[in-house]
Design goal:
The complex is a heterodimer of chains A (about 120) and B (about 300). With about 120 residues, chain A is mainly beta. Helix content of chain A is about 15%, strand content about 45%. Chain A is rod-shaped and about 85 Å long. Chain B has a single domain, classed as Lipocalin. Chain B is about 5% helix and about 60% strand. Chain B starts with a helix and ends with a strand. Classes of the chains: A mainly beta (about 120), B mainly beta (about 300).
Chain lengths: ~120, ~300
């Protein structure tokens, strides 16, 4: 390492590598987050019944986050099943938050009425 | 005296892991119960395991035909550290972990949801208000706080678990406890009266688990008192009443929350050469009343290990 010639070659090599190292943008990173819809197969059900709920969204590395105050949500991803447990009579708001890889998020909700 | 207090400790500990049931909402504090104050400089290390099963619905005090859930169960590990700061003041910390807290559904068939994670932790201070060594009567009281390790509700695969499957309340709370202990040396009989009140705060999701009041009466008796035998045994019978208040979502009472239960819990305690204590108990509900329709308790059991350390 004490040889100046060796240092020079190393420096040139690193410079060439950096110049040639073209930074490729991550594919789809510029895709805007769009949360177009959330739907339930049935919005009125009886206690003890289930209904399918799905969200339609697009964007970069999106994830679907689901929550509900009363009742149970089964499954994950863009589609879940809402189970109306005995304590759910009335209106129950199922919330879906879609987050993308750029830190953006959008929220939509659907109300399931349980009799 | 220490052995006597440790026995009390083991008797009351399992009050922790149970009770948070499923539909009846609310979560246990880690180690829970302890009894009496420890002598100055004494450290007590306790570990326990608790299992509980629910597989039927109750409406009021009647068995219901609703069978949405096939069964629900949890496995819980808890610890409690108690340290005698002085002869009248004992500090305690409680911590617990849900290995699982699972609901297996009948509708839709084959589905299950599983919660897991750290329960609330608690720190409390206990003060010996009255102690009469001649009559062997002690009265102590404790107060403390319980707190979550995360203010956020638990999610699995980005789906928030139902509140009854959350491992902790995700909110601050308070604990108050009272202990009345009476011992008869000659007959080997002991009597404990234990009360515990837990007050829960509101978490970030606007949910407040119902407050709980537990009242327990214990009667215990030595089985083996031979001095050269390395193991001594004690049988304990506990009758416990649990009252759980309504839970609230955004200040609105959850319809299916709140309950009154009575359990009978037979327990066997074994002390090995006065150094280790091992205890087994079974929780049998003998009366259950639930507001509206809720998943009811069926049975539970616990194994408890206690190790006293003289510092």
């Amino acid at each position: 390492m004490k040889n100046p010639l060796f240092k020079l070659i190393l420096l040139i090599g690193m410079s060439v590598s950096l110049i040639n190292c073209e930074k490729k943008p991550e594919e789809g990173k510029d895709t805007p987050l769009v949360f177009s819809d959330i739907q339930a197969r049935r919005q009125m059900i009886l206690a003890g019944d289930t209904t399918r709920i799905w969200a339609t969204a697009s964007g970069y590395q999106i994830t679907y986050h689901w929550s509900v105050e009363k009742g149970d949500l089964l499954g994950s991803g863009s589609e879940v099943t809402y189970l109306a447990t005995p304590c759910t009579v009335g209106d129950n708001t199922v919330v879906c938050k879609v987050m993308d890889g750029n830190g953006q998020e959008m929220t939509r909700q659907v109300v399931i009425t349980v009799f | 005296m220490i052995r006597y207090l440790l026995l009390c400790l083991m008797v009351l500990l399992p009050i922790a892991g149970r009770g948070q049931c499923f539909s009846s909402a609310g979560n246990p504090v880690g180690g829970s119960g302890n009894t009496g104050t420890l002598d100055k400089g004494t450290l007590s290390v306790v570990g326990y395991y608790k299992y509980a099963l629910s597989d039927r619905y109750f409406e009021g005090s009647q068995l219901s035909e609703v069978d949405i859930i096939r069964n629900a169960n949890y496995n819980y590990l808890g610890t409690l550290l108690a340290y005698g700061v002085t002869n009248t003041v004992t500090l305690e910390t409680e911590l617990g972990y849900f290995i699982n807290k699972t609901k297996n559904y009948r509708i839709p068939e084959g589905y299950s949801l599983k919660g897991f994670g750290l329960s609330n932790a608690a720190i409390s201070a206990k003060y010996q208000i009255y102690y009469n060594p001649e009559k062997k009567i002690e009265f102590s009281a404790a107060a403390g706080i319980k707190f979550p390790f995360s203010p956020n509700s638990k999610e699995v695969d980005h789906v928030r678990l139902p509140f009854d499957l959350q491992p902790s309340t995700s909110a601050l709370g308070m604990i108050m406890q009272a202990y009345l202990i009476k011992q008869h040396s000659l007959s080997g009989m002991r009597y404990f009266l234990y009360n515990r009140m837990e007050v829960n705060g509101v978490n970030k999701d606007g949910y407040r688990y119902g407050n709980t009041l537990t009242n327990s009466i214990f009667i215990s008796r030595h089985l083996i008192r031979t001095s050269n035998w390395p193991v001594s045994g004690t049988v304990i019978m506990q009758v416990r009443n649990e009252i759980r208040g309504r839970s609230y979502i955004n200040k609105v009472a959850e319809p299916s929350s709140g309950s009154v239960k009575v359990y009978v819990s037979p327990q066997l305690n074994l002390a090995f050469v006065e150094k280790w204590n091992l205890s087994f108990l079974v929780d049998i509900p003998v009366y259950q009343y639930y507001t509206n329709l809720q998943l009811a308790d069926k049975v539970g059991f616990a194994i408890i290990l206690v190790k006293p350390v003289e510092l």
